[in-house]
Design brief:
Blueprint: H1 2-19, E1 26-30, E2 47-52, E3 56-65, E4 68-77, E5 79-86, E6 92-100, E7 105-114, E8 117-128, E9 131-140, E10 143-153
Antiparallel strand pairs: 1-2, 1-10, 2-3, 3-4, 5-6, 6-7, 7-8, 8-9, 9-10
Length: about 150
Amino acid sequence: MKNFVFILALAFLSATAFGQKVNLSGDWKLNESKSELGYEFSLAPKAMKVEHTKKTLDLTSTSEWDGQEIESKSHYTLDGEISENVGFAESVTKSTASFDKKAGTLKIVTNGSVEGMDYTLTQVMSMKEDKLVVESEAASDMGDMVETFVFDKE
């Protein structure tokens, strides 16, 4: 009888896990108090619009730099193929994005170059409670920066 109850409970939990789908879509606003941002400056956008489908991810990020608002748009395929987007100073970036259904995370690795400096930006996006969390790691000749951005749904 114990084995039957255990198997039934396991089947229920498995069905519940398979029934849940992670969708990162929405309009998101940075929650600075819950985020772990860089000391001198941060790469965190103050807002993001995310459109997440089964095969693609579209991001519109709004950042502020030297008192000016900057909007950038990026399109990614979620099949591991390279997606090209406009990066800093109108440079072209190359990114790969993949969704890990089991972990419920979306990982984007972007390589770019601006003014002769090569950089790699790795971002892992996930939902934690009702928040969008982006774990960001930037690496360049100037050093590394690790930040965690927490966004609230608008």
